[in-house]
Design a protein that fits this description.
By secondary structure, the protein is α+β, with helices and mostly antiparallel strands. The chain has 3 domains: 6-238, no CATH class; 262-334; 336-430, 2-Layer Sandwich (Beta-Lactamase), CATH 3.30.450. It contains 11 helices and 5 strands. Helix 3 packs antiparallel against helix 6. The two termini are 85 Å apart.
């Protein structure tokens, strides 16, 4: 490890840090996500159970009021409301999951008292149907008048009371009067009929049992929801602490690397900057490092030698290209014939000075003349296709002054570095008298 270069030490240190930290963080986040999703689903189930329990408590209250009203008035509408409330309670109890509920008393345990309530209600309805012709109010007028006078006095005293606590006490007293009035009316209805009194007692007992089941389920659901929310908060806080601890450990590890090798890192960064600055100027030579291994200095030295070699090669190549071009132009000027190079698209690539003298000063004139002669095009295509020299032929071409003139034409293939024929060397020797191809 001590013999490794600085860049390898830093790379290995950072790589090991990420290898150790990233999988742990990823696994922690993955399992935390699954746990939180499970907790949320549990809270949703408990919320639905809590809503059913609360609805059941409200229906039990409505069932009691409808029961009292039906006993007093014996109206069909009250009986219908009573059966509707009972049907809703049975529906809520029926959709509660069967078996042991891990979150408290199940609502399904309210089904037996609801069945007893329905049986007692059916018996009570049969008795009341027989007594339909009896005055439902009997001698309750005196009790109602006395109760109303007492209730008005309590409410008036509550309105005059400035203290909110005392006012609340008066309202509670008014509620007690209401309950006593309800009990008095029920007592009047069941006083002379023991069978009806027993049925009313059964109804009240079943209703109170259903109320206890619903209130217990609601309380258990509320407590469990609070516990699950505290658990989610605890898991989230613990995950945040763990992730923060891992990030802190990674930062401390990186800081330790920087504190162990501060001077070497600073010197290396400075030398890298100096190397890049000198590279922009074309000189990668760096002064020797005062101590230790000088890898950047050696790199700059070798790169500088490589650049010198590339510059020298480029200079020699440019000189040879210029020499070859000069030789080509000298040879073309020494030839009395018209010499030109055309590519596979019949464009003139190079021509000696005799071409403008024969075919016109403008390059387009010579281009149109050569491209417009079908015999010359056939000859050039044959050389490009076969890659072999074509024998000299006599062709008639139009010169720059518009006259037709005979030429001795020779075509030779010119190969590129891959050996493919991409250009054709054409020599045009004017004849003494015009001829035909």
């Amino acid at each position: 490890m001590a013999r490794l270069p600085l860049r390898w030490k830093m790379t290995l240190g950072i790589l090991i840090s990420f290898i150790l930290v990233l999988p742990v963080v990823a696994l922690s986040l993955y399992f935390l996500r699954d746990i939180l999703q499970l907790e949320r689903r549990i809270i949703e189930v408990l919320g639905a159970r809590q809503a059913d329990a609360r609805a059941m408590v409200q229906r039990v209250e409505a069932l009691g009021r409808a029961e009292t009203l039906y006993l007093i008035t014996r109206e069909d509408r009250s009986r219908t409301d009573l059966r509707e409330h009972l049907a809703v309670l049975e529906e809520i109890a029926a959709r509660s999951p069967a078996g042991q509920d891990p979150y408290g008393a199940p609502l399904r345990t309210a089904q037996p008292p609801l069945e007893r309530y329905r049986a007692s209600l059916d018996s009570l309805v049969r008795i009341i149907e027989v007594e339909k012709n009896v005055d439902p109010y009997r001698d309750a007028e005196v009790k109602v008048r006395r109760f109303r006078e007492e209730l008005d006095r309590v409410l008036a005293r509550a309105d005059r009371e400035a203290d909110p606590v005392r006012r609340q006490e008066h309202f509670h007293r008014a509620q007690e009067f209401l309950r006593s009035f309800e009990n008095a009316l029920l007592a009047m209805e069941t006083r002379d009929d023991p069978q009806k009194a027993a049925l009313v007692h059964d109804l009240q007992g079943a209703r109170e049992e259903v109320r206890r089941v619903a209130e217990q389920a609601e309380g258990d659901s509320t407590s469990e929801i609070d516990a699950q929310r505290r658990r989610i908060a605890s898991l989230s806080n613990r995950a945040r602490k763990n992730i923060f601890s891992m990030i802190l450990v990674t930062a401390l590890l990186g800081l330790a690397w920087i504190l162990v090798l501060p001077r070497r890192i600073a010197v290396s960064i400075h030398r890298i900057t100096n190397l890049l600055r000198r590279g922009e100027q074309g000189n990668l030579n760096l002064p020797r490092a005062p101590e230790g291994s000088d890898e950047l200095g050696e790199l700059g030295f070798h790169l500088n030698r490589f650049l010198d070699t590339v510059r020298q090669y480029d200079r020699l190549k440019a000189e040879r290209i210029r020499e070859a071009d000069n030789r080509l132009r000298a040879l073309a000027a020494a030839v009395e014939e018209v010499v030109l190079f055309v590519d596979d698209s019949f464009r003139i690539v190079f021509a000696n000075d005799r071409l403008p003298a024969v075919f016109g000063r403008e390059p387009d004139d010579a281009q149109r003349t050569l491209a417009g002669n079908p015999d010359l095009q056939t000859l050039i295509r044959g050389v490009l296709r076969d890659g072999e020299e074509a024998s000299r032929k006599r062709l008639t071409l139009t010169t720059g002054d518009g006259t037709a003139r005979g030429f001795q034409v020779a075509c030779n293939p010119v190969r590129d570095h891959r050996g493919e024929v991409r250009q054709v060397l054409i020599s045009l020797k004017p004849l003494a008298s015009p001829g035909k191809a």
